[in-house]
Specification:
The complex is a heterodimer of chains A (110) and B (114). Chain A is mainly beta. Chain A is built from no helices and eleven strands. With 114 residues, chain B is mostly beta strands. The chains are: A mainly beta (110), B mainly beta (114). At the A-B interface, strand 5 and strand 10 of A face strand 5 and strand 10 of B.
C-alpha cells in the first residue's frame, strides 16, 4: 500500500529503552527520518538514516534499517519523561518530499 | 537564527468563510512546503515551492485552496470557502535548497471550522 505504518501508542517506564517501529513503502527512498512532535509544537528532526546504511547511532538514539523488509526502528536508551511526545517516521519521495506515518505517541511513566 | 514563523497560531471560523495563513521561512531557504496535519495523523503535503515557483501542487484541492509565494520568501495559503473537514493544523516548513536532508517546521496554525 501507500501508507507508512506505525503503531499508535507506546508506554514505557523512565529509564527503560523505547523501541518505535515503522514500515515504509518506497524501496527507492533515499532517506528515512524520525521526527518528534511535542504538544503545540511543529515537527523537529531527531535523526535520519541514508538508505545504504543499516544502523546509525546518535547519543541515546539508535536507528536500525532493514531495507529488505522496509522496516525502520528508533531505539531511545534510558528514556526520560521529557521524551514523551509523538514520533513520526517518514520516507523521502523523489528526494524532495516526505511521506509521514500517523505517529507513535510515546508515554514515559516515572 | 529565527525559525520558521507562522501566523496566526489559532483560527476559528464559520464554514463558508475565507481564511488565510501566513508563513515566513528561515532566511535564505529556497524551498517552502505547506502541509496539512489532521488530528491523529502525520502531515500530508499540500504544495511545495522552489523560490517563487510552485513545483508540486498535485495534492492541493484547487477548487477552494490557493497559495502564493510572490517574491520567493514568505508565503500565504488561503481557503475559500472553508468547510468543516478543513479543520486541521496547517504546517509550513522550509529547506535551504531542493533535496536538502532536513526540513525545518513552524509551529503550525490550528484551524477550527464550525
Amino acid at each position: 500500500g501507500e501508507d507508512v505504518e506505525q503503531s499508535l501508542f507506546l508506554s514505557v517506564r523512565e529509564g527503560d529503552s523505547s523501541v518505535i517501529n515503522c514500515t515504509y513503502t518506497d524501496s527507492s527512498s533515499t532517506y528515512l527520518y524520525w521526527y518528534k512532535q511535542e504538544p503545540g509544537a511543529g515537527l523537529q528532526l531527531l535523526t535520519y538514516i541514508f538508505s545504504n546504511m543499516d544502523m546509525k547511532q546518535d547519543q541515546r538514539l539508535t536507528v536500525l534499517l532493514n531495507k529488505k523488509d522496509k522496516h525502520l526502528s528508533l531505539r531511545i536508551a534510558d528514556t526520560q519523561t521529557g521524551d514523551s511526545a509523538i514520533y513520526f517516521c517518514a520516507e523521502s519521495i523523489n528526494n524532495n518530499d516526505m511521506r509521514f506515518g500517523a505517529g507513535t505517541r510515546l508515554t514515559v511513566k516515572p | 537564527e529565527a525559525g520558521v514563523v507562522q501566523s496566526p497560531r489559532y483560527k476559528i471560523i464559520e464554514k463558508k468563510q475565507p481564511v488565510a495563513f501566513w508563513c515566513n521561512p528561515i532566511s535564505g531557504h529556497n524551498t517552502l512546503y505547506w502541509y496539512r496535519q489532521n488530528l491523529g495523523q502525520g502531515p500530508e503535503l499540500l504544495i511545495r515551492y522552489e523560490n517563487e515557483e510552485a513545483v508540486d501542487d498535485s495534492q492541493l484541492p484547487k477548487d477552494r485552496f490557493s497559495a502564493e509565494r510572490l517574491k520567493g520568501v514568505d508565503s500565504t495559503l488561503k481557503i475559500q470557502p472553508a468547510e468543516l473537514g478543513d479543520s486541521a493544523v496547517y504546517l509550513c516548513a522550509s529547506n535551504p535548497w531542493e533535496g536538502a536532508t532536513e526540513a525545518f517546521f513552524g509551529q503550525g496554525t490550528r484551524l477550527t471550522v464550525v
